[in-house]
């Protein structure tokens, strides 16, 4: 399913009047626009506007009988969209589980038993995973001098200058006047 279709579907449902319309149709479908307007205490043009929005995303269907249009739920599509969002979230969760296992394996491959780095990984994805692991001991909100950061990095690898530069370039840390501070994780370079 295209993400845009899903977004449009949930945007259309992001209106109190439209939710009320769906509830009314679930309770006693089919209903005409006039009947819906009376039940909600709004004008028929307001109902037409909201019903058009719901039709655009296949939440409802309509059928004409003479001069009257009756609306009813498109239960098949409503169920499909609700199941789709759950599937997307489930896949994302499984992807995170796979990423966690991958990170664990990479850390095992690149760290010696004493926790020091064998080598700095050449592949960006692996390098970022290693850096994230290294930064677990750095406190968010605490300010570090360059010497303190160098000593911290030396626990993992002797090339503290390269790793310190990588911390800055990948937005793990912020540097100003020789003082280093850990950035929030949302700012860190994304592992892809």
TrEMBL record:
GO MF terms here are:
DNA binding; DNA-binding transcription factor activity
Under the heading InterPro entries, the entry gives:
ArsR-like_HTH (IPR011991), DUF2087 (IPR018656), HTH_ArsR_DNA-bd_dom (IPR001845), HTH_MetalResp_TranReg (IPR051081), WH-like_DNA-bd_sf (IPR036388), WH_DNA-bd_sf (IPR036390)
Q: Which NCBIfam families match?
A: HTH_metalloreg
Q: Where would I find the HTH arsR-type domain in this sequence? A: 1-93
Keywords attached to this entry: DNA-binding, Transcription, Transcription regulation
One of its Pfam families is DUF2087
* Superkingdom classification of source: Bacteria
User: What is the native source organism of this protein?
Assistant: Sutcliffiella cohnii
The UniProt record lists the keyword Transcription regulation: yes
List the CDD domains hit by this protein, alphabetically: HTH_ARSR
Entry protein name: ArsR family transcriptional regulator
């Amino acid at each position: 399913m295209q993400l845009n279709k899903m977004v449009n579907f949930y945007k259309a449902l992001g209106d109190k009047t439209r939710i009320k319309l769906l509830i009314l149709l679930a309770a006693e479908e089919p209903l005409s626009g006039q009947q819906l307007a009376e039940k909600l205490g709004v004008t028929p043009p307001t109902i037409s506007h909201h019903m058009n929005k719901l039709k655009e995303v296949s939440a409802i269907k309509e059928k004409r009988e003479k001069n009257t249009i009756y609306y009813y739920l498109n239960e098949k599509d409503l169920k499909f969209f609700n199941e789709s969002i759950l599937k997307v979230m489930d896949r994302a969760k499984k992807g995170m589980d796979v990423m966690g296992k991958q990170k664990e394996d990479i850390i095992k491959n690149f760290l010696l038993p004493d926790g020091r780095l064998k080598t700095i990984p050449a592949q960006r994805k692996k390098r970022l995973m290693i850096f994230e692991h290294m930064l677990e001991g750095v406190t968010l909100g605490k300010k570090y001098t360059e010497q303190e950061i160098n000593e911290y990095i030396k626990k993992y690898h002797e090339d503290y200058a390269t790793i310190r530069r990588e911390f800055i370039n990948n937005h793990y840390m912020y540097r100003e006047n020789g003082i280093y501070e850990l950035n929030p994780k949302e700012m860190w370079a994304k592992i892809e």
